[in-house]
Amino acid sequence: MERACKTDPPTLDPGGKRMTIPPVAFRASQAVRAALSALGRTEDLRFSPDNRLLAIAGFARKRCLLLRIDIGMRPDGPGITIHDFVELRSDDIGEVHGLDFIDDRTLVVANRDGQLAIFALPVDSVTGRHREITALRRIDGKPFCKLRTPGSVVARRESGGRVSLLVCNNYTHLVTRHVAVRRLGYRTVRNQPLLGNGLDIPDGIAISHDGQWIAVSSHGTKDVKLYRTSPTLGPRSEPVGTLQDAGFPHGLRFTGDDRHIIVADAGSPVVHVYERGDSWNGRRGPARSVGVLDEETFQRGRASVEEGGPKGLDIDRSNSVIAVTCEEQALAFYPLASVLGSGIGPCLAP
After folding, report:
1. Which of 126, 170, 224, 332 has its CB 3.0 to 4.6 Å from that of 151, i.e. a possible disulfide?
2. Which CATH number belongs to the domain containing residue 172 in this structure?
3. Are strands 77-89 and 27-28 parallel, antiparallel or unpaired?
4. Which three-class secondary structure state does DSSP give residue 267?
5. Residue at 302 is within a domain
6. Domain count, the chain
7. Strands 288-291 and 19-20
8. Neighbouring C-beta atoms of residue 168, cutoff 10 Å
9. Contact 149, 142 (CB under 8 A)
10. SS3 160
C-alpha cells in the first residue's frame, strides 16, 4: 500500500554547523527493494540521458543493477517510482567501480580489476530478473595507453559518431582519454594520457554541461581538482581550481547550470556543495555541507576513516533530485533544492 506524506524537517547537528535532510522516499515493489538490499558494496551510479533508467555499480558482487525509474515534480515535491529492475551479469563485468551512459541504450563500465566494457542494454528486459550479457567492445588502452585499475568513467559524445571516455586510473594517479567510434563497434581510434598533475588516487570525474571544465576527485589530497578544457590539455597541465576540505571525495556532479558542484564525501555522512561565483579558478571551501546518512547507518560502514559515507552521486536529468549510494544504503534520493539550500519540501513515502 502506498500513501503520500510529508518529510520530517531538516535538522542541525549538535554543533549547529551541518544540516541533515531526510531522503525522498520512493515507491517500489518488494522485489526491487530486495534487489537493492542484495547489491552489497556499491560505487558509482548514473541516470540515463532520457532519465528513465538508473544504473548502479555492484562492485563486490561483480554486476550492475539497472532500474526503470520515473521522476516527476508535484506541488509537494519530487515523486519517485522505481517500476522494475534487471540485474546485469557478464564475464566482462568484474569489480565494476564506474559506469556511464553513452546513450539511452548503451552503457560503459569501468572494472577496477580489468578493462572498460561497452554494453548494449536489454532495455526491453527490465522485468525483475537476472540477465547474462556480453560486451560489444572491451577497451584496454593498448598499446600506448594501457588502462590500470580503472575507476570512475565519464562519456562525452562528440561529432562524427565519436565518444570520448575519460577514465580515472585510480592507483596510477592518471586520467586517460579513449576515443571510440560507434560505427566501428566502438573501436578506439585514440588512447592518450589526459590529466595527472596534482592527482593522488583520482576517484571520481565529471564534465561541466558547457564542456569547459573537468572536475576530478583526488582522494589522497582530500580535494577536487578543476581543469579547464583546451586543445593543449595534457598530463602536465596544472589544475586551475581546487575545491578544498572535501574529506575523501568520491562521486561528484555539476548542477545543470554549472553554478555548483556537489561532492560525495566517503569519509563522512555528508555531501559538500561548492559555488562557482565568477569562475572555478582558485581555491575555495564548501558553501555548505549536507548530511545524507544518519549516524547509525554511517557507523555501520565505518571500517576506516575513509569509509562509511556516500560513494556514488548523480543528479537526475530534470535537476530535481540527487541520488547517492554506498554499501550500507544502496540508494537514496534527496531534493536538489534542499541540498543547495534553496528550499525544503515534502515528499512521498510508502
Report:
1. 170
2. 2.130.10.10
3. parallel
4. coil
5. yes
6. 1
7. parallel
8. 30
9. no
10. helix
Other CB atoms closer than 10 Å to residue 203's CB: what's the count? 28
Contacts of 305 (CB under 8 A, 6+ apart): 248, 267
- 327: nearest Cα among 287, 350, 298: 298
Q: Is residue 350 part of a domain?
A: no
What is the spatial distance between Cα 242 and Cα 168, in angstroms, rounded to a whole number? 17
Residue 246 region by backbone torsions, left for phi larger than 0, else alpha for psi between -120 and 50, else beta:
alpha
Q: Determine the structural domain holding residue 270 and report its residue range.
A: 23-336
Secondary structure (DSSP) of 86-123? EEEE-TT--SEEEEEEEETTEEEEEETTS-EEEEE--G
Mind listing the pLDDT tens digit for each residue in 161-213? 999 999 999 999 999 999 999 999 999 999 999 999 999 999 999 999 999 99
Cβ-proximal residues to 216 (8 Å cutoff; 6+ apart), any chain? 168, 175, 195, 199, 202, 204, 205, 224, 225, 226, 227
What is the 8-class DSSP label of residue 259? S
Burial of 288 (0-12, 13-18, 19+ CB in 10 A): middle
d(CA 67, CA 85): 4
> DSSP of 195-262, one letter per residue?
E-TT-SSEEEEEE-TTSSEEEEEETTTTEEEEEE--TT--TTPPPSEEE---SSEEEEEE-TTSSEEE
- The C-alpha atoms of residue 252 and residue 261 are separated, in whole angstroms, by 7
Pairing verdict, β 329-335 and 241-243: unpaired
- Nearest alpha-carbon partner for 19 in 265, 291, 271: 291
Helix (H) or strand (E) holding 196: none
The backbone torsions φ and ψ at residue 248, rounded to the nearest 5 degrees and listed phi first, read: -115, 85
pLDDT single digits (tens) 202-251: 999 999 999 999 999 999 999 999 999 999 999 999 999 999 999 999 99
Residue 40 maps to a domain = yes
pTM: 0.92
